[in-house]
Structures are given as structure tokens and as C-alpha cells.
Amino acid sequence: METPTVKTFRLLPSSDDRFLPFTFVPGQFLNVAFWIGGAKMNRSYSISSSPNEREFVDLTIRREPRGAVSRHIDDLLKVGDLIESGGPVGKFTFTGKEADSIVLLSGGVGITPMMSISRYLTERSWPGDIFFIYSCRTPADFIFADKIPVLQRLNPKLHVTVTMSKPDGTDWKGARGRITKEWLTQLVPDLASRRCHLCGPPAMMDSVKAIFAELGIPSDHLKTETFGAVKPIPAIAGTTAKPTAPATGPLVTFSKNSKSAKVRMDLKVGDSPPRQSILELSEELGIGIEFSCRVGTCGICKVKMTSGDVDMEVQDALDANDKATNIILACQAKPKSDVAVAA
Ligand SMILES: Cc1cc2nc3c(=O)[nH]c(=O)nc-3n(C[C@H](O)[C@H](O)[C@H](O)COP(=O)(O)OP(=O)(O)OC[C@H]3O[C@@H](n4cnc5c(N)ncnc54)[C@H](O)[C@@H]3O)c2cc1C
Ligand code: FES
Questions:
Q1: Which of 224, 240, 264 is a domain's end point?
Q2: Where a domain ends, among 89, 114, 139?
Q3: Is the CB of residue 263 less than 8 Å from the CB of residue 283?
Q4: Which of 32, 181, 249, 328 sits at a 20 to 30 Å CA gap from 69?
Q5: What family does the entry list (predicted)?
Q6: What separation in Å is there between the alpha carbon of 29 and the centre of ligand 1?
Q7: 332: Cβ below 6 Å to ligand 1?
Q8: Cβ–Cβ contacts within 10 Å for residue 306, how many?
Q9: Other CB atoms closer than 10 Å to residue 301's CB: what's the count?
Q10: Span from the CA of 201 to the centroid of ligand 1 (angstroms)
């Protein structure tokens, strides 16, 4: 137990091998899959342990009050159960070679990749400054509260600051309130010249991005990882309420299922122009493209585009080889012309 709602799960090799069959870079995540109620559900979880540990990986998972997979893991997983997992994947990584200091800004369960990075750098006696800035609601929500002081004792270059947004009625003596521009620039000298990583709840990430923009720091200076937004409950084929207006967008053909349909242009308020993603259309048709994050990070929804052209706002999960071979992310892909995909 890390907090009343967050637990760390330690995964060991399923074979008799002592060591894991893979290595990873600090900051990467695993895509785990569970069969729940007859449906396969994929979710991504950042590895919170250090890559120096070759015998296990730790995933630190918050139980979401109405979450399908996190509650399944918390309620039903037993020691010794087998887990199906893909990866490790992800580009939200830092090994110490990329810069000579780092600012790790996290909130809530977004602390997990930062923990892996800090553990790794500490074990390597990396000489750079690590500014570890964490925000949570109350002392009870402080994930790794007992493990961070241990790292601090080992690493004098690890500068930890924790701020709590709702510490009233507790004995918290540290910083209070949300992260502000003045507080951040005081805490991190020469903020603009340092490599910064950010992961946390959407509101926290938006406000830190706004601070960086206000300070005139270019947006590509700040590496971010989004853990995904509240997801629409996927439609089940045949039960979806039919849209009132006919679809008028480009035609998408799902060649393996021999199904085609036009994209709806009016699905999302605020899209410019409003257009349905290939994943959303596939859910209406019951195609069964797998997904996890729905924000372009995990790569579970990769599919081959055999003809046509799409826009993809986020392409984090695609590598150069994917792009060269017309692999697209169905959750991000919005058709610009008629499209065919191998799904
Ligand atoms: C790269 C990456 C790394 C990640 N790393 C971590 C990590 O280290 N630790 C971690 O805990 N998570 C992590 N996540 C998030 C994780 O993948 C899951 O999204 C999270 O566990 C929620 O999954 P779930 O199935 O429990 O919730 P889902 O069923 O997917 O629900 C998502 C949200 O919607 C809410 N919800 C569901 N149904 C309803 C409903 N009917 N009405 C209202 N609200 C509803 C849930 O409470 C939840 O907040 C990561 C995500 C990504 C993309
Ligand atoms: S579902 Fe994760 S990249 Fe599309």
C-alpha cells in the first residue's frame, strides 16, 4: 500500500528465469491486458522501479472509483497470477545522458515515471541536480512518502519539494497550494535552461504549461506524458444509438471486416473541422480495434493504413519505421480523404 487508494504491484518473470526477459529505460511503461466481462481491456502503467533491477518491475496503480481495470487489479489480482503485458514502450524517458540536470514535475499518480528516473539516477550516482517537485491533495495522498526520504539520504543532488493543495486539518509542515510561477522560479534557478518533465492530472499539467508559456519557455522544452482522459464507454456493435444526422465525411474501409462507413463530421464540439477518429468509427461498427490511452501515447491502437490520408494530432507512439510503413494510431487518425485500414 502506498496510500489508501494506491498500491504497488511487483511483476516477476513468468518462467523459472531469474531475470526479466526485457530491459527498459526509466520513464517507460507497460501495456497490460485483462479479460473483464468477456472483453479484452488494455491499460498502460508506467514502471516505478529502476531498470537496474533485473528481477522485477513495479507498477504503482491508483484505484479509480469507477475504473474497469484498476478495480479489477485491486480487487481480484492474487499473488502468483499471470499477467499479459506488452512493452516496455514510451518516449517520456531520461537516462542522464540527455542533459546535465533535470526538473521532474508531477502530481498525483503521475509520480510513477519520476520515481523510476530518480531511483535510476541515484543508483548510478549521476552528478546532475534533480529537482523533484510533487503536488498532491493531502499527506494521505502522498505516494512514495516513505521511499523518497530514503533516496534523498542517498543522493544529495536530489532536491525534493512537495506541495499539498488541501492539507488543512493535517500536521503537514511543507509547502501548501498549487504550483505557481513565482514558487517554481524560486525553487528552480535558471528554470528555462533545464530539461523539464511533467506528468499529472490534466488541470495541473495545463497550469504548469501555462506557467512555462508565460515565462516564454518554448513548449518543446517541456516533455509531457498524459495518463489519458475519462474515456467514453465503448459502443457495442448493434446497440449504438444511431446518429440523427447522416455521416458526410470521408469513407473508411475496414478491409479485414469487409465493412465501410463515412466519418461523422459533427462528433466532437470544438474540433476544427469536427471529424470522428478511425477508432471512434470502428467502435460504432463493432470492428474491435484495441485501445488503451486514447491519447496517442500507448500504441495499442496501431493499424496499417493501406490507402488514403489522415491527420494525427499526437503521434508519440509511432517510431520512424511505423511512419515509413503507413502505420497509424486509430485513436488519433482523422481521415482527410477516403481511407482503407487493415482492421
Ligand atoms: C502512458 C501511461 C502511463 C500510465 N501510468 C499509470 C500509472 O503509473 N499508474 C496509474 O494508476 N495509472 C496510470 N495510467 C492510467 C491507466 O492506464 C488507466 O487509464 C487508469 O488505471 C484507469 O483505468 P481504469 O480501467 O481503471 O478506468 P476506466 O474504466 O478506463 O475509466 C477511466 C476513468 O473514467 C471514470 N469512469 C469510468 N466509468 C465511469 C462512469 N460510468 N461514470 C463516470 N466516470 C467513469 C473512472 O473513474 C476513471 O477515472 C497510465 C496511462 C498511460 C497512458
Ligand atoms: S489508444 Fe493509445 S495510442 Fe491510441
A1: 224
A2: 89
A3: no
A4: 328
A5: In the N-terminal section; belongs to the FAD-binding oxidoreductase type 6 family.
A6: 14
A7: no
A8: 12
A9: 25
A10: 11
